[in-house]
Amino acid sequence: MAGADPEKLIAKADKLTKLTLTRWSADWRNATQYYEQAATAYRFAKKHEKAKVTPWDAAKHMESAAALAVELSIWNEVADFYRRASELYNECGRSQPASDALAKGARALEDGKPEVAITMYTDACLLLEEDGKENMVFDIYRAITSLYIKLEKYTDAATFLLRWAVAANKCNALHSQCKAYLSAIIVYLYAHDFKEAEKCYNDCCQIDTFLSSDQSHCASKLLSAYREADIEEIQRVAKSSTVSNLDHVIIRLARKLPTGEVIAMEINSVEHGEALDEDDLT
Q1: Which GO terms describe its biological process (predicted)?
Q2: Surface-to-core class of residue 60, CB atoms within 10 Å of its CB (0-12 exposed, 13-18 middle, 19+ buried)
């Protein structure tokens, strides 16, 4: 490889990606191998700038191949090509395009291979988090939360919302942090897990930023309404402006509250004669 001519390797790669009368489809896999060999040859020749550019070009070609695979609905290749593009961008020291490539693949796979999409979204987050770019990850957090909810994996969705809150805190996006906490509490309530919602609220209130926020007051009212089985109050709070400023997927869940368990609690209290006695101070 030390004696290989990188320019000739690039020419071979370019040739494989161009369509002709006799070549109706691009050979992206072999082209990428030539680009990578050219990068290695440039490094041997101590032409480091060109060595960096070549993987970048290869990554672009991998993304083009992935987009074509999406059009042809070849889903396994979609994941492979976008992952390889991400690896090549990362090799160039560019975490953002590396993350973007994985996110593009995840979006393409949401319907056909949702579990693969979740893994790719998660890896896309990690790339930016590890590079200290939490402020660039919000759209990916939003996408993976929506996908978890679509799959009815509510505990996973709430967990990721809490992770979003931590990232928001790191980049001083305090309003986003509080919104993520309230969203997690709403997801737990929608999943019929009042105890976990209450625990989440108590944990979040250890953070001063949340404790004094509109989102905290809203969560407190919502939980109180649940304790009292006050359906009208739950619905009123769920339609409040604070909830209306959350992401659409969370608003849709909130609008469907309360859950069946609240109605059951009201029925049980009547059946067992447990109505509140205002004269009983014990």
Answers
A1: intracellular protein transport; vesicle-mediated transport
A2: middle
